[in-house]
Structures are given as structure tokens and as C-alpha cells.
UniProtKB/TrEMBL annotation:
Residues 40-279 form the Orn/DAP/Arg decarboxylase 2 N-terminal domain. Pyridoxal 5'-phosphate binds at G240, E274, P275, G276, R277, Y373. It comes from Gemmobacter fulvus. The gene is lysA. It catalyses: meso-2,6-diaminopimelate + H(+) = L-lysine + CO2. HAMAP family: LysA (MF_02120). This is Diaminopimelate decarboxylase.
Length: 422
């Protein structure tokens, strides 16, 4: 929820902490997350889906800071990972291996072996070729690999083209028509324990109809496999639940849960969902300072100290993050500002915001809904440092990621000895 962001005496607070106090302590730009909002989001989703035997696994890619993961892990939340790095983070945050699912279209041999050794709950396999590698690794290690096949159900998630994943031309999953033969073949191998199926159709999904379509297709596939005498115990329903903004209320959780019940509820399956954005997106803000104002065509530019390397979503997906100034509303004509960063690219542009001003240099602005795919996707382009992350809890806050500093970056670039080859 957004309820953790309130105005007290005019100034914008995260829970009980004025964001300006955080800015003073850590400098801008920075990310701030609300522990209460993370916990409330998990509690609401887990409660909504609980009647259908659904467990929640947080998609670590959305916000991979170990302290954020620890908040979820402490509540019993599982994790959906896509790399060995994410596995290490999930474990470091206290998630038991039995609650970790390994997704992803390009797992390496090393990552698969590590996952099997650790004893993860499930590996979602996305191709026949990957299945061979999982089988070989399991044989070598003398283990049985718990495998689900990720299905491409060929549905359009009706979201931004760059975050849709289940059209038939997508790189993700195995075409539904190929699944029965591959599943049967895999089930005959002693080193593979075929536990079920998985699906994930895309991200930031606001219209729930594509979920119904995809899950109904999965129910059909489960019936086909079972009719062939194959065991199907689990179904991973994927992530993708979107969050609303000022123009859209966002999907209704009760409706989401009802669709689960109606499509796959009666099949005696252990179900799970893998939301990332829904659990953490609204629980974070990116706070940035206005550096300069500059008159422009149509709208004035406000050049801010956050840039596309800190929050990539506007440049990459034309995403818009609602903005709130930290200062109280001011007298004077509301003006439109185009918020742009310091990076030497035209796409370093957060968009036009009508009714924001009047602004002045030194003002602090909070980009909302920055808790998902914000820090997690950031880079050091233009040799900008990764920015601090702060966790707020009640009236307290603490740094959960410090700045690395340019010196640390330069140290990694100390040249190694020449190796002679050829
Ligand atoms: N499960 C799988 C297999 C996924 O690939 C993803 C996201 C999720 C779960 C979680 O999806 P969510 O519930 O967060 O929508 N960077 C983009 C979003 C990319 C999502 C990639 N996969 C953005 O900033 O909008």
C-alpha cells in the first residue's frame, strides 16, 4: 500500500520518518523502503490466496537487497530466484532451501549443480536442452532433481511489449503442445522427480483476464498429463500482478484469488505464485534533489540528481512514476516540469509532470512505486555510484546499502598480469 507515505506538518514522511531527515543523513539520491509496507503487502496477498493452498514466493529480481528479502523471509515467504547470485542472497536472508524455486531460461551448469546440492524446492525447466543438463547434473551428484516444466501458454498479457513473456514467439517456456511428450519422457528418468508445471505470462498486469486464460490452459494441461498416468503435484502460477497508480486502482486481490480458485482450485495441486512488483513496488521511493531549473519548450526542465542509471524504468519502458515533493504545497501557479537527469542521453528523462511546481533548486522530490525494479536494475553508467538504500521502520531508519565509492570501482580495475596465449 501507499499508506506509509504521509504528510506531517506539510512535510513528506515515510512511516514516522521525515524523508528530508534521511536525505540529510545519507545524501541524495537514495532509495527508501517501508518495512511496514513490505510486511503489509505480504500479509494481504498471503491471506487472499491462502484458501486455495497457495504459497507466495517473492521474485527476488524485483528488489534483491538482503534486508528486504529478510523482511519477507521472516514472515515465511518463499523466494523465486533466477541466478546463483539470487540463490546466495535468498539463503543469506534466511530462506530455507525448501522454499526456493529456481526460474530462468538460461541457468548455467554451475548454477544447476549448486541448486541441486543446496536442495532447492524446485527447478523450473524451460527447454528440452536444459532438462538434459539438469538430468546429467543430478546423475553426477547422485540426487533426484525436483523439476517443473515452464509452459508457454501463448497468451497476450496485455502489458508493455518488453515485459510480456508468454506469446508464442517469446524465448520463455516450452510450447504447450510439446509438454506432454517431454513430461512423459522426463518422468521415466530416475534422476528426475517430475513435480509439475509452471507458467509466467508477463509483468505489470492490470487486467486479470490473461491470468484466467493462462491458468485455464494450465488446468487443461494438468488433466492431459494425469490422464496419461503422469503425476502432477504442483503448479507454479508465476508473478506479474500489477500495481495501480493515480489513473488505475490496480487489480483486486480478491478477484485474483477467485480466478485462481476457479481455474486451478479443484485440482488438488500445491500452488504457488511468484510476485515481485506487487510485494515491494509501492513500498519504496526514490528521493532526488532538484539541481537546476531551465526554461524549455512546452515545459520547463527540472534537472535532478537522480538519473536513468538509478531508475531505468522510464527510459526502458516509458514507465511513469508518480512524484511527490517533500515540501508542503506552495503558493503560485502550478507548473509543468519535465524531470530529467544528468546523464548524457536524451532518454535520461522521467517525463513531464503537470501541476508539480513551482519548484526551486534544492527541492527534494520522491518518485513513488520505485520499490520494485529500481535499485535492482541500477547501474554505474557515467561512473555514477550505486545510490544508498534505506529501510524505514516506524520512527527509525537505517542504511541497508552503503555507497560503494569510486575508489572501490577503480580497485577492481587494477590491471592483472598479462597472460600469454597463441
Ligand atoms: N516469475 C518470473 C519467472 C519472472 O520472470 C518474473 C519477472 C516474476 C516472477 C515477477 O514478476 P512481477 O510480479 O514482478 O511482475 N523490469 C521490468 C519487469 C520485468 C519482470 C521480469 N520477470 C519492470 O521494471 O517493469
Amino acid at each position: 500500500t501507499d499508506a506509509w507515505l504521509t504528510r506531517r506538518n506539510g512535510t513528506l514522511c515515510a512511516e514516522a520518518v521525515p524523508l528530508s531527515a534521511v536525505a540529510q543523513a545519507v545524501g541524495t539520491p537514495f532509495y527508501a523502503y517501508s518495512a511496514a509496507a513490505l510486511r503489509a503487502n505480504y500479509a494481504a496477498l498471503a491471506a487472499a490466496v491462502a484458501p486455495h493452498r497457495v504459497t507466495v514466493c517473492f521474485a527476488v529480481k524485483a528488489s534483491s537487497n538482503r534486508n528486504v528479502l529478510a523482511e519477507f523471509a521472516a514472515l515465511g515467504c518463499g523466494m523465486d530466484i533466477v541466478s546463483g547470485g539470487e540463490m546466495t542472497r535468498a539463503l543469506a536472508a534466511g530462506t530455507p532451501p525448501s522454499r526456493i524455486i529456481f526460474s530462468g531460461v538460461g541457468k548455467t551448469r554451475g548454477e544447476i549443480r549448486a541448486a541441486l546440492r543446496v536442495g532447492l524446492h524446485q527447478i523450473n525447466v524451460e527447454s528440452a536442452a536444459e532438462l538434459e543438463v539438469v538430468a546429467a547434473a543430478a546423475r553426477e551428484l547422485g540426487l533426484r532433481a525436483p523439476v517443473a516444466l515452464r509452459v508457454n501458454p501463448d497468451v497476450d498479457a496485455l502489458t508493455h511489449a518488453k515485459i510480456t513473456t508468454a506469446r508464442k514467439d517469446s524465448k520463455f517456456g516450452i510450447a504447450a503442445a510439446e509438454v506432454p511428450a517431454l513430461y512423459a519422457e522426463a518422468a521415466a528418468r530416475p534422476e528426475l522427480e517430475m513435480v509439475g508445471l509452471a507458467v509466467h505470462i508477463g509483468s505489470q498486469i492490470l487486467d486479470l483476464a490473461p491470468f484466467r486464460q493462462a491458468w485455464a490452459a494450465m488446468a487443461g494441461l494438468v488433466r492431459v498429463l494425469r490422464a496419461a498416468g503422469l503425476p502432477v503435484a504442483r503448479l507454479d502460477l508465476g508473478g506479474g500482478l500489477g500495481i495501480g497508480d493515480d489513473s488505475h486502482p490496480g487489480p483486486d486481490l480478491a478477484e485474483y484469488a477467485r480466478i485462481i480458485g476457479e481455474t486451478v482450485g479443484g485440482l488438488d495441486l500445491a500452488l504457488n505464485v511468484e510476485p515481485g512488483r506487487w510485494l515491494c513496488g509501492r513500498a519504496g521511493v526514490l528521493v532526488s534533489e532538484v539541481l537546476y531549473l531551465k526554461p524549455g519548450e512546452g515545459a520547463d526542465f527540472a534537472i535532478i540528481d537522480a538519473a536513468m542509471n538509478d531508475l531505468m524504468r522510464p527510459a526502458l519502458y516509458e514507465a511513469r512514476h508518480p512524484v511527490m515533493p517533500l515540501h508542503p504545497p506552495r503558493d503560485g501557479a502550478a507548473r509543468a516540469y519535465r524531470l530529467v537527469g544528468p546523464i548524457c542521453e536524451s532518454s535520461d528523462d522521467f517525463g513531464s509532470y503537470p501541476g508539480l511546481g513551482p519548484l526551486a533548486a534544492g527541492d527534494l522530490l520522491a518518485f513513488r512505486h520505485a520499490g520494485a525494479y529500481g535499485a535492482a536494475m541500477s547501474s554505474t553508467y557515467n561512473s555514477r555510484d550505486l545510490i544508498p538504500e534505506v529501510l524505514v521502520d516506524g520512527a527509525q531508519f537505517r542504511l541497508i546499502r552503503a555507497r560503494a565509492g569510486i575508489d572501490a570501482a577503480l580497485r577492481l580495475e587494477e590491471p592483472g598480469p598479462w597472460s600469454h596465449a597463441g
